[in-house]
Request: fold
Amino acid sequence: MQRVLFIILLALMLTGLYAAWTHTTVEGNILILFIAALVISALFTTRKRFIPLEPKRIAYAIAYIPYMFYAIIRANFDVARRVVQPTIPINPGIVEVRTKLKSSIGKTVLANSITLTPGTLSVDIRGNRLVIHWIDVRDVEEKGATEDIVRGFERFLEVIFG
Reply:
């Protein structure tokens, strides 16, 4: 039952996002979108990877969206500030960070979140470590780099994905 509810909610969300992006308001189009989203949601969700719909997880997932926007905007301003300065103060490098996340989907969302924020790029996932290209390496030590790059995202993702 939970899986069916999850599929319906996911299909509604996908339909709503697509309709908003394309400015679709015709009922027939929205119905076709919803049916397609149901089929896609059913095909791409499995029992093994299913994340239980618990109020705490849902709340953290909703809270993650504005946090992600904040992180992206903050990083955009940081990179823009570096670009407009005459000396371009960067210290690029590759760092390895550790994650507490256990699930592969949680690690993937973390890696994608890091990549979406300007100035950082996820290069590889190796077990519980991520290899990150960082525009301004402030700490080459794993503990410091993990704190600077990963911890903000991980606070939310630990609850959402376990």
Remarks:
- Residues 2-44 form one domain.
- Residues 55-84 form the longest helix (30 residues).
- The CA atoms of residues 6 and 106 lie 18 Å apart.
